[in-house]
Design brief:
This protein has 347 residues and is mainly α. Helices cover 80% and strands 0% of the residues.
Length: 347
C-alpha cells in the first residue's frame, strides 16, 4: 500500500490530472483505513470525471466509515445513475439510509437488491434490521426467518429475532435464539448481554444467577460495555446484593458519565443501604442530566426528608406537583400530605 501511495504521489507531482493515480492512491488509503485521505483522492478523481462509478462507490464506502451517511447516499445514487443495477449498491444504499433512520427508503433499496438476488441471507437480514429499527416487528421477524432459511448459522439473525421474542415476553424462544447466536459467534458481547436480560426478566434465583454469568461474559469480551454493567447492577438488586450492585452501577457510570438511569438506580440502592448523603449526590448528578423529572425530584425530596433538611424537601416535593400536574406518578396525594406535614413542623 505504501508503495502504491508513494508511486501515485510521484506521478501526480509530474502529471496532476491523472485520474487513475488519484483513484489508486485513494484505494490504498482506504485499505489502510485512512478514510479522510481516501475521500480527498476520490474527490480529485471525480473532479476529472464525475461519472467514474468506481470512485463514487468507494467514496461512498469511505463516507460511511467516517459517519457521513448523507454524502454516502448521494454517491451511491450517482453510482446507480451512471452504472448498472447492482445488488451490492442497492444494499449499501439501504444501509446508508438505515443509518440516517430513513427506513422507508432503506427498505425500498433492499427490495431492489432482493429482486436481483433472492437467496442472499444478508439482504433479508439487513431489511429485517431496518424493519426492526422502524418498529415493524412482524415484517422484521419474517425477514429474519427467511435469512435463517438461507443460512441456518446466521448469528446476527438469531440475535435480532431473539430481541423480538423477548419484546413479546416469549423468553423461552428468546433464550433459544440468543443461545444459537452464541453457538455460531461466541465472541458476541451483545448476544451474551441479551441472553442475560432474558434470564433477568424471567426472574427467580437460578435465572438471576444465569443472568449475572452472561453479563460477566459480555463484560469479559467488552470491558467498556456500559449496558452490561448496568444490567448486572439491576440483577444484583433483584438478588438483594446491594453493595455489589453499587459497584456495577459505578462501572457503568465510569464508561458513560451521562448514563442517567445508572445514577438513579445507584441512588435508589444507596437509599436501601440508608446512605442518604451518597444517594443525594447520585440524584443531584442525575438531576443535572434531567432537570424536569418528577420521579427523580420525588426521590430527592424523600432523601432531604430523611436527612432532616425540611426546606429542601418541601422545595423538591413542590416541584413534583408542578411538573406532574396530571399525577402520572400517582403520588400527588402523598406528596401534598408530606408538604403540609413538613411545613407544620417548621412552625
Amino acid at each position: 500500500m505504501l508503495l502504491i501511495i508513494d508511486n501515485s504521489t510521484a506521478l501526480l507531482e509530474l502529471y496532476p490530472n491523472v485520474l487513475s493515480a488519484y483513484y489508486s492512491r485513494g484505494y490504498a488509503y482506504q485499505l489502510k483505513g485512512s478514510y479522510d485521505q481516501a475521500i480527498s483522492d476520490y474527490t480529485q478523481a471525480l473532479n476529472i470525471d464525475g461519472a467514474y462509478t468506481k470512485a463514487l462507490n468507494n467514496r461512498a464506502f469511505s463516507y460511511i466509515k467516517v459517519g457521513k451517511y448523507k454524502q454516502a447516499v448521494s454517491d451511491y445514487k450517482k453510482v446507480l445513475k451512471y452504472g448498472s443495477r447492482n445488488k451490492d449498491v442497492y444494499n449499501n444504499l439501504g444501509n446508508a439510509y438505515t443509518s440516517i433512520r430513513n427506513y422507508e427508503e432503506a427498505i425500498d433499496n433492499y427490495n431492489k437488491a432482493i429482486d436481483l438476488d433472492s437467496i442472499n441471507a444478508d439482504l433479508f437480514y439487513n431489511r429485517g434490521d431496518a424493519y426492526q429499527s422502524w418498529g415493524k416487528e412482524d415484517q422484521a421477524l419474517s425477514d429474519f426467518n427467511e435469512a435463517l432459511k438461507i443460512d441456518s448459522m446466521y448469528a446476527n439473525a438469531y440475535n435480532n429475532r431473539g430481541i423480538i421474542f423477548e419484546n413479546r415476553k416469549d423468553y423461552k424462544k428468546a433464550i433459544s435464539d440468543y443461545t444459537k447466536a452464541l453457538k455460531y459467534d461466541s465472541t458476541s458481547s451483545i448476544a451474551y448481554n441479551n441472553l442475560g436480560t432474558a434470564y433477568l426478566k424471567i426472574g427467580e434465583i437460578n435465572n438471576l444467577n444465569k443472568a449475572i454469568s452472561n453479563f460477566d461474559k459480555a463484560i469479559k469480551l467488552d470491558s467498556s460495555y456500559t449496558e452490561a454493567f448496568f444490567n448486572k447492577g439491576n440483577t444484583l438488586v433483584n438478588l438483594k446484593n446491594y453493595s455489589a450492585a453499587v459497584t456495577a452501577y459505578d462501572r457503568a457510570i465510569s464508561t458513560d458519565s451521562t448514563y442517567l438511569a445508572a445514577y438513579i438506580n445507584k441512588g435508589n440502592v444507596l437509599v436501601e443501604l440508608k446512605k442518604h448523603k451518597e444517594a443525594l449526590e447520585c440524584y443531584t448528578k442525575a438531576l443535572s442530566l434531567d432537570s424536569e423529572s418528577p420521579d427523580l425530584l420525588y426521590n430527592i425530596g424523600h432523601v432531604y426528608e430523611k436527612l432532616g433538611n425540611k426546606k429542601e424537601a418541601i422545595s423538591s416535593f413542590e416541584k413534583v406537583l408542578k411538573l406532574d400536574k396530571n399525577d402520572s406518578l400517582g403520588v400527588k396525594s402523598i406528596t401534598e400530605t408530606k408538604i403540609k406535614t413538613l411545613k407544620r413542623s417548621l412552625k
